[in-house]
């Protein structure tokens, strides 16, 4: 995985063997790029505005995503259920084994 001067991980390197790299190592720019790449271009800026890096992303609760980012409810629900929660689960599983 390549790290850029600004501390972010090269977007191409954030996927290893078909899986997303461990978000715990992501900088704010990586979190923003991840959500832009998954179709949440407009909402990705909320993560930048709130300075959410990978470690912060892994600590977010459903309520944090729904109310703390000031984004519309529909996209917020999708972001949490289809992205944040699975990334948290993946991180926990990879650290247990």
TrEMBL record:
InterPro entries in the cross-refs: PcG_chromatin_remod_factors, SAM, SAM/pointed_sf
Any single Gene Ontology cellular-component annotation: nucleus
Domain SAM: 26-74
Single GO BP term: negative regulation of DNA-templated transcription
Classification via Pfam families: SAM_1
Record-linked PROSITE patterns: SAM_DOMAIN
GO molecular function annotations of the record: chromatin binding; histone binding
Protein name, entry field: Sterile alpha motif domain-containing protein 13-like
Natural source organism: Carassius auratus (Goldfish)
Name of the gene encoding the protein in the UniProt record: LOC113069364
